[in-house]
Design a protein that fits this description.
Blueprint lengths: L3 H6 L3 H10 L3 H14 L7 H6 L4 H16 L8 H8 L4 H16 L8 H10 L3 H16 L8 H7 L5 H16 L6 H9 L5 H16 L8 H7 L5 H16 L8 H7 L5 H16 L6 H6 L8 H28 L1
Helix pairs in contact: 2-3, 3-5, 5-7, 6-7, 7-9, 8-9, 9-11, 10-11, 10-12, 11-13, 12-13, 13-15, 14-15, 15-17, 16-17, 17-19
Length: about 350
């Protein structure tokens, strides 16, 4: 029987890895490896761990646990990604799930590769287990946050916006937003996001407004989003109101503003949340720039000139000036026409 305590003291990492492959005391060897990693992860060789992932499933599972721990300690374990990708396609559910979990741990620490995308896409399209699909979309989201993504993910992610699982729908929408931030988008997402604006989950509705705003900023938008977004300005949740204002502000900037939103925007100028008040003023500002305004907005905006938040004061002041300028232009046009 191997002297695991001695191997731990001598930091015999490769010897312990061999024990995991061959010995009956695998779990003790794993615990010893974790102790070594906790002491100092800098001199740990990565290649033996990659080889662990190619062993039988029990051994590969232990290998993924050790790789995760190394990543959390700051070691670059990117060389393990190709082997992890292969495990994402494994026939055993628990292995697929663990491989996705490990890839997500790596992605959160900036260790990622576009080579993972197609493997993850297959899990989005073909996976029958909800928890594995959730892990797959979460991993894709984390990769997108790191600027790693492909257009080939758009269709399967769009499909997940309609998934029965609320958490999957929510994460799919956030993934579309992150992909959009990285200039990976398609107009086909607008239709599914518009439907998500009416989702039974407040969180899904809120995330959908945010994603539509991101896509609109990339010049991907449709007038059909306006009516449901205006309706969402009445949400009880402040984040939902904030996100709806964000999207409407960008649509207004693109020339897709609606006078129908102005009465609700007036109400939101009195909102308890600073971000909502500011975005309401800025959205009125964008509408006024494109010639959509009501004189009544000036009186509604005046109290914000004394708001505790300097940014809100500035937004209100700028909007009032634009509306007054628009009113003067109207007077001049009427005067020249008489």
């Amino acid at each position: 029987m191997a002297d695991i305590e001695k191997m731990k003291k001598e930091r015999d990492f490769e010897g312990l890895v061999d024990l995991i492959k061959e010995d009956d005391e695998k779990e003790k060897a794993v615990r010893a490896l974790r102790t070594i990693i906790e002491q100092d992860a800098d001199d740990i060789p990565i290649e033996p761990l990659t080889e662990l992932l190619k062993e039988d499933l029990y051994v590969a599972y232990f290998g993924m646990m050790i790789i995760e721990r190394l990543a959390t300690k700051g070691r670059d374990v990117s060389r393990c990604i190709d082997a992890l990708n292969e495990l994402v396609d494994d026939l055993v559910k628990e292995v697929r799930k663990k491989a996705l979990d490990t890839l997500s741990v790596l992605a959160e620490r900036g260790f990622c590769s576009s080579s993972s995308i197609e493997y993850i896409n297959r899990r989005l399209e073909d996976e029958v287990y909800d928890d594995v699909r959730l892990d797959a979309i979460w991993t894709l989201y984390l990769l997108a946050k790191e600027g790693v993504g492909k257009r080939s993910s758009i269709d399967p992610v769009n499909d997940l916006v309609r998934d029965e699982d609320q958490e999957i729908r929510s994460c799919a929408i956030l993934t579309l937003a992150e992909l959009g931030e990285n200039n990976i988008y398609d107009g086909s997402s607008i239709k599914v996001l518009n439907k998500a604006l009416k989702d039974r989950s407040q969180e899904v509705r809120s995330h959908a407004t945010f994603a539509l705003g991101i896509l609109a900023s990339k010049k991907v938008y449709d007038p059909s989003s306006l009516k449901p977004l205006i309706k969402l300005l009445e949400e009880k949740d402040s984040e939902a109101r904030y996100n709806a204002l964000f999207a409407l502000g960008i649509l207004a900037e693109k020339g897709l503003g609606s006078e129908a939103s102005i009465p609700v925007l007036h109400e939101l100028l009195d909102d308890s949340k600073e971000g909502v008040r500011k975005n309401a003023a800025l959205t009125l500002n964008e509408l006024a720039i494109t010639g959509i305004f009501k004189e009544k907005s000036i009186e509604k905006l005046k109290p914000l000139l004394e708001d505790d938040d300097d940014d809100i004061q500035e937004a209100a002041s700028r909007t009032i000036l634009i509306i007054k300028s628009d009113l003067l232009d109207q007077e001049r046009k009427h005067g020249s026409g008489s």
